[in-house]
Fold Transmembrane anterior posterior transformation 1.
Amino acid sequence: KFINVPGEESVGPGEGEGWPPHMFLDKYCSFYFVSFSFPVELSLLRFLSAELTRGYFLEHNEAKYTERRERVYTCMRIPRELEKLMVFGIFLCLDAFLYVFTLLPLRVFLALFRLFTLPCYGLRDRRLLQPAQVCDILKGVILVICYFMMHYVDYSMMYHLIRGQSVIKLYIIYNMLEVADRLFSSFGQDILDALYWTATEPKERKRAHIGVIPHFFMAVLYVFLHAILIMVQATTLNVAFNSHNKSLLTIMMSNNFVEIKGSVFKKFEKNNLFQMSNSDIKERFTNYVLLLIVCLRNMEQFSWNPDHLWVLFPDVCMVIASETAVDIVKHAFITKFNDITADVYSEYRASLAFDLVSSRQKNAYTDYSDSVARRMGFIPLPLAVLLIRVVTSSIKVQGILSYACVILFYFGLISLKVLNSIVLLGKSCQYVKEAKMEEKLFNPPPASTSGKPPHKSQNKCKPSQEENLSASVTSQPVHPKENVIPLLVTSSSDQFLTTPDGDEKDITQESSELKHRSSKKDLLEVDRFTICGNRID
């Protein structure tokens, strides 16, 4: 018997006599590849003894096991960080949704009052109305027209028509409605933005549109069809709640777990995960409104008996709990498989907060509700039309006391909206400062609005350091004068631009870098329906 160590003299029988083989392994394995021939006499007992006594040291691969431990800690942090983002995003959607019921009617009234009293004060400006007032009037008119159009849709007939279908057919219909809702949301905000811009575009420019009236009819048709689609979704959910064996509700909830299979085993980048987070926020808030509609319809059928509300309560909690559990599991495994840290959700929260803060700037270019619609794909107008239709048909207002209760309820909604806006604005300023994004609030927008990347220009108009964030967010919007660069960054919802690298570079170097940067966009440039990589999540 012998032991042959490469690079050393062979250890003969005399030197290695009586030394167990593992001692030579312990002696040389740290420096050499050791090979030796065992004695011929092998036994099962010796094999079992070696299997029971052999050891290993995890510190020899410390980096690997440290990384695995960090993945576990990341998965443990995901529920907390995700729910913080979800709560913040849901309150943002609530703020935009309450705006339609509270401040929008008041703004429409003020705009109409200015329009009718304008001859008394004279025309001091070239515009009859400010662009924001024109958009408010258009939103109010669309809301009123679609509300009266919804009276021709019979909710009861739709309910019995859907209830007569088989369970499998209803499951397929519900999945088709979810896909149609995403398609409507992606194209609907473009229709509304086109209407707002066509109505407020300066008249000195060359006419390059089909006119305000065709755009207006397209917007009315879109809001009406989208409201009907959401009504069918709510009716299907109502049928699932009222079924005796709850089989349809179980199938609809299992559809959420199918979403895990279609998401966690795909490659995700940071921008794709941001889109998915926005989609989950919008989906969760929409489900809350649909559950509210279902409860209103059921309570009306049972003459507002409070006991029936406790019958619906377990099913409502089950739907909300399943949605929350699916989101947590989905995001936990996506971040695990793609090596994304849990800190990315604080960046997402700061990006959403940036939209709110930027909409309060002097030269704000959009209303906050429209910014939420672009970022998350949540359009409040169709959902508001449906909720108004359901509430007015479910609750009968008769007598002076009833109207007094309605007025008090309206003032309560205004108080809730104002309180929610104040808290959100304060938290948004905090998140923007923590993310060190204050400088982007005062960056000039790119001069190019086409699909080509704009050339970098020197910023000669820098804001003074004395202007702080809290003072700027409470200022009223001012109509920008000509030849003055607005001091606000343009959101990516309107322009899909690559992220600038900072200093000036050569044109040839920029063209070579654009190929590498085209697929990686800044979070502020990613909305719900921006293609990141090769897909929209």
